[in-house]
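Issue 218. Parser rejects a valid record. Input:
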Amino acid sequence: MIGVSLLMKIISLNIRGLGGTIKRNYLRDLIYKEQANMVCLQETKCVGVSREKVCLLWGSNEVDWVEKKVVNSASGVLTIWSSKSFQLYRSVNGSNYFVIGGLWKHGNGVSVTVVNVYCSGSLPEKKEVWDEINAARLNQLSKAWCIIGDFNSIRRQEERKCMISTSDYSREIRGFN
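Output the parser choked on:
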């Protein structure tokens, strides 16, 4: 299989609003420069995304996407992919995430699942998202999984920019890990 790439390039970015021209140009340039196959955006703050907008972002009309529309001013999840690279066969719209499953065309039709997550809010809301994703993972046949996004959680106390007592976040760290 000389010349066939099994590598799947995915970009994940908390865009904090997709409305501005500068951000859209930055994203399009990043997709082109990195030769991305898929882009997972969080906090799009978009009510809806048109085909025209997605094609402009991607730089081509050979593109597909799924979106979780804005519920509040800080939400919105958008997953965009090259239709030449990935073929969608299922999607699950979760509370703060999107699960897409499909065939990675450059990997001899390998079944892959990508989860694009944006968590905000309280620990019980985050835990609900983690539990839902874990249940989805346990119920799927796909062996290749990529869980990506903005979880607004940390895995170690050292990741906090401001040092609050360790006990304040220990339950969240244990649950997230």
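Fixed in the parser; the record now loads. The CA atoms of residues 1 and 8 lie 16 Å apart.
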